[in-house]
Amino acid sequence: YKKKMNEVRVANEIKEVKGKFDEMVERLVRYKEEHGDCLVSRTCEDVELSKFVKNIREKRARLRRNGNEGGEILAKGKHISLRTLTAERIERLDNIGFAWIIGTTKEAWISWEQRFQDVMEYYEEHGKWPTQTMG
Questions:
Q1: How far is CA 33 from the centre of its chain?
Q2: φ, ψ (nearest 5 deg) of residue 8
Q3: 71 and 90 in contact (C-beta within 8 Å)?
Q4: End-to-end alpha-carbon separation of the chain, Å?
């Protein structure tokens, strides 16, 4: 009986954490609808969302530094937390346009796709690739 009750408790905790992550993603989507981007700042009125975004960005940066681009793979018995970044969670955030890396201002952030488009246009116009010193 005790083992079964513990399994139920753990399942409920996992549901609660998954629900909290879903809630934060929904809040991020609402933020994007209101502001036009996912560049949630530290001074955002929604302090909880701001902390969530900061922690998720830091977690992804830490994973990348350790050579892990695809997300965390949970070991057997390890429970998912709000900060756990699985491949599925990374994909969900990517799909809404989450900014993993931000500059000091909104204008400083240029997506990889935009930068690639700029380079292609430069090549078409000048017949050569831009130098690294051009940005």
A1: 17
A2: -65, -45
A3: yes
A4: 64
